[in-house]
Amino acid sequence: MGSDEQQEPQSPRGALLALLVVVSIVAAVLFVMNRLHRSATLEDCLASGRTNCAPIETPSQTR
Q1: What is the pLDDT of residue 8?
Q2: Is there a contact between 45 and 54 (Cβ–Cβ < 8 Å)?
Q3: What is the distance between the terminal CA atoms of the chain, rounded to a whole angstrom?
Q4: Which residue pairs, CB below 8 angstroms and at least 24 apart, start in 2-11?
Q5: Looking at residue 4, what DSSP letter applies?
Q6: How far apart are CA 28 and CA 61, in angstroms?
Q7: What digits encode the pLDDT tens for the residues 21-60?
Q8: Contact between 54 and 42 (Cβ < 8 Å)
Q9: Model's pTM, two decimal places?
């Protein structure tokens, strides 16, 4: 009867670790999805017969 009332409070360390793992997994999934989307877009462009599919990176102009 007294053992249920005498429990020590749980440390939030485990919950924070689980939250960190979930956030890391979500970030990794979003990164992979972004890479797959860019790859699929490039493949679609190439499959349509175009030759200028690669994006051109231009340096930003700062003054």
Answers
A1: 74
A2: no
A3: 75
A4: none
A5: T
A6: 32
A7: 999 999 999 999 999 999 999 999 999 988 888 777 888 8
A8: yes
A9: 0.62
